[in-house]
Amino acid sequence: MNEFIGWFNQVLTISIQLYFQQECEYSSLEEVKPPVNGWLEKVTGVPDLTFDERMVVMLALMPHVCPQILDIFFIQNKNFDRQYTEFGGWKGLSHGGFLPTGETASFILAGEDTEKRKGVIRLFQKDHWFYTKNILRLEGAGEGEPFLSGQLRVSEEFLSRVLLDKEYKPDYNIGFPAKRITTQLEWEDMVLDYLVAAELEEINVWISSGKTVMEDWGLSRILKAGYRSLFYGPPGTGKTLAATLLGKKNEMDVYRIDLSMIVSKYIGETEKNLAKVFDLAENRNWILFFDEADALFGKRTSTNTSNDRHANQEVAYLLQRIEDFPGMVILATNLRSNIDEAFSRRFQSVVYFPMPTEEQRAELWRNMLPGKWLGKDAEELITMAAETELSGGAITNVVRRCALRMIQSKKKLLDKVMLKEALQKEKIKS
What we know:
alpha/beta, 6-stranded mixed beta sheet
């Protein structure tokens, strides 16, 4: 990185010299050859960077790695007793140094050349890898203000790679209302109805082979990008676990959307909050998981009041964002009937998670009960437990209660009385 900082500092100095027609040993910036150590290619994941792309990336990084280099932009225009307009820049709340904008990049690369300025603008379009790879972007330009006046901001993901040498995993906060969910279980640990297993396998095939379907076979002409699935069924039947394991099996992060931070009573806020999630997830290998999705994607009502109209507009917006999202989206609900029919028509798959049969419950008990708890009457205990109709989630609650009871009683083996008591308590809850 130090070599690139030195190179950027040299490019910046030369651009100032050329712009103000000072004595300079170079006639153009491109004469200053960038380092060939491959560092920038590695952290961006882009093999063939142009001169302009290298310069913009380093400019965006400067406030984070060597802010004093940009102090040169504080020089005053003596004719107007103010900073040079063409330098751009913005002032942070606590940072005392110069923070670059798109104008800053344009000044360095284009100077007064309007054609080159157009090339700089193209660097910040949504189809450029700066945006698609979530490296950097322009943000914060006011309504009606020049496009390049936006703040040149490097993403937290890219900063993590540069400064910490590790991949960034966003976490739950006010600006990102979603939580990454994981599990220590494996795909083989799921106990599923054969119909559910078949549906999940179809989703697996899409995740692993969707590129073949869309690009190699040319079906992108008639098929929308992305995949949308609805999981529905009683609580505790494995909807969240299935979503989590789909991600784990395919090396995808799974983010559960926090609906309490998404839904707002104020007009437009729900849409804005949801947009934050979709915008951040758009070009990432993520699964977005909406649990209890009927709270967000519920049925539209008759428009008797302005509130009804707003609610319907909100649902319509959500429908459009879901449909346009190019990645994997899973909605989960206990009651399918609560989901607006307009959504249902746009799901590529609808998977019903039923309550487990007695045979499946027996398998769940065998998987969950530690072997060290069971003596010679292990199968008798499992058979007794399986007779009680419980979901997989409820069974985990029973196992937890048994564990606590065994600690209290200082027993090393699970007995019938203890298990029966735990089963009864869980059954009362349901």
